[in-house]
Amino acid sequence: MKNHSFAFDASGAQNFLDAADWAAIQPEVEAAAALLESRKGPGHEFLGWLDLPDHCDPVELDRVKSAAQRIRETSDVLVVIGIGGSYLGAKAALDFCGHHFYNQIGPNARAKSGGKAPEIYFAGHQLSASYLLDLIDLIGDRDFSVNVISKSGTTTEPAVAFRLFKRLLEQRYGPEGAQKRIYATTDKSRGALKQLATQEGYETFVVPDDVGGRFSVLTPVGLLPIAVAGIDVDALLNGAAAAKAASFAPFADNACMRYAAARNILHRKGKLIELLVGYEPRCHYVAEWWKQLYGESEGKGGKGIFPASVDFTTDLHSMGQYVQDGPRHLFETVLDVKDAGRDIEMQAELEDLDGLNYLTGKKVSYINQQAAEGTRMAHLDGQVPNLRIHLPDMGPHTLGSLFFFFEKACAISGYVLGVNPFDQPGVEAYKKNMFALLGKQ
Questions:
Q1: Which residues are catalytic?
Q2: Where are the domains of the chain?
Q3: Among the four 6, 147, 285, 403, which has the fewest Cβ within 10 Å?
């Protein structure tokens, strides 16, 4: 169940997962994994993500790094325009591997590898006019670039945002200057954005035909913004490659298979909701990325585990009561970070008015770890199954491992559930209604 980056731990669900459960589901999970690797199952045309960790095109990767360096040198701000998988992976990586206050700490502090690094903001992931105008206010008269990410170029939310920021760039720098500040990540040969990029001369990066949006974080979709932030994309890919290698282990030692197995066993026993829990705020957008991955992949045909997330200990003061004493229809998967990178020790006060002198000499990370363990014990007493994913640190290698682990486990789990994990037919329903209401012909 281990590789050098992380470990999957189902011991907190042992009262719900007995030996007979594991033995019964093992053949199903192994068959699902074999079907995935055979590339003959439902959605097999979208399995390019399986190859990304160790077959990344070195020429394309060098172009990503070069473009990232140009953006770092010429821009105070990068606006990343995309929705769903076109922004969540990058946002997850920027938060997980970066400073909590990356955009506020100043260009020199942000630049881990010398030079300067721009502030990075996201747009096109909703339709709020006030958000877009506030972002334009924030940019002010500073130099900025845009990375627009869309396979088609016609998805409403990013298309609306791109129109606004494209016009702003052209007003500020002229058409030729704007052309040098727009980077389009899109289809290799077709679609409205590709046509515009070719027409205007934008530098383009390819969204592979065989990689769906929610599996695209290890393509230029995620890698370009991640590289702009100064995060080591080679380490990210190496971590994913390590997780891929580990995913071929026998069932007893295979984290992907056992996670897929555990969640399906629990689902069959009436657990309808999975809570992804983080005790580090920098895990928040990993959970947002994970929710799209599992929600879009499994929620179809009246099936699926509902993916939700909480940030502990914060949400223990709002959702803790429900988790502890509410309906017994959920289980937890906890991201257990061993080393978040920085720490501080509690000091004694002459007057112990807050009663915390008993913590003197203890590090805040230790206090957080004990809060996590105390919560786990309470929730187990409350009959909430607890799965854990142990993470050694919050670096790019670990995150790359986590990305691939979740992706492959999701694909296996979807096949066990009996759905095609790679389509999303239900996503179109709201769009049809919205277009009709807007008068689109």
A1: 296, 317, 431
A2: 7-41+236-426, 50-231
A3: 285
